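Q: I'm writing up a methods section and want to include an example of the input and output format. Could you take the sequence below and give the corresponding predicted structure tokens, formatted cleanly so I can copy it straight into the document?
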Amino acid sequence: QGGRKCRQEEVYMLHRDRRKSPHRSGCGTEGKLHSTSTEMEEVQTSLSLQMLQVAREVVQQSSLQVIRTPLIHLPHGTIPMKINCNLYLKLENMQTTGSFKIRGVANQFSRKESGPFITMSAGNYGKAFAYASKHFGHRGKVLMVDTAPASKNALIASYGVDVEQMPAKSLMPTVEQLVKDQKMIFLHPFDDIDLIAGHGSIGLEILEEIPNPDVVTVCCGGGGLLAGVAAAFKLSGCTTTNIYGVEPKEACTMYRSFCENKPVFMDAKSIATGLAPPFAGSNSFQICKQHVKEILLVSDDEIKAAVSMLYKIGLVVEPSGAAAFAAIVGEKINLEGKTVVVIITGGNVSPEELCHIIH
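A: Here is the clean output for your methods example:
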């Protein structure tokens, strides 16, 4: 098994670093948005199907106990929808640490020999990062904005990592300074290729149960999850599957990036705080632009309604985790007669917040 793991890692590193190799072209062109830039060509060769498959095995075998989450079917009539579609939910709210983030973190940590590590997050990535740091015995530090709730600070700090709050504009300069002065290793919370490949394991799991869905909806913040899942489907040859990203209307960084054909910054605000980073990741953007059909927008009220609807069928889901479901019940696209998969991304919501939303 040890020899097999070494060979897997050699393949993974070869594909990750081979910038000029031919791009694997197992999928057709339907639903793609192309770019002819040199940067795009470089990203295409930096994430291959074989890399995704190896990352998936790393995630499966990780001692972080990443689980294969349930993919459940919702019979027609379970939720109030006018249209009739074959609807499935991938329940990452039941994942270790309460969200999909542990998948990417597992792959990131597998590529690093030792810390100390540093990242930026006041949410699910910070929790997964802290959990992994404690598990592997690494020194870790999490920077978060000074507007983050004290409860988030306390939760992440409870895993034994250092937590420091500061204005948003100081986050990256502080990271850069600590990397320089204290030789810390920066793990990006949403725009790292290893992270994206780890998140792609969700897509490969879905494909084993539903080989060719018509539609897959994925929430989008910085874009790491959307990029990984979209690449997993398209590089696996799913030419007729349309992948949709879903963002809050007031935190639509990827939508605006698609419109301007480059990653953009904005003052993002939403009840779905996990989907409101100030910018879309550059790696994530390039991969999404290649493989994602469209970015759909939902309002905060639609997200709240989705959280409430999921609660009524027995699922505890945070606002960020319900955005993709909100797009489906809001009928943002034509779904009549189609097989649809919605990724429910997280369930880290306090009883107080949940009570406020559902009432």
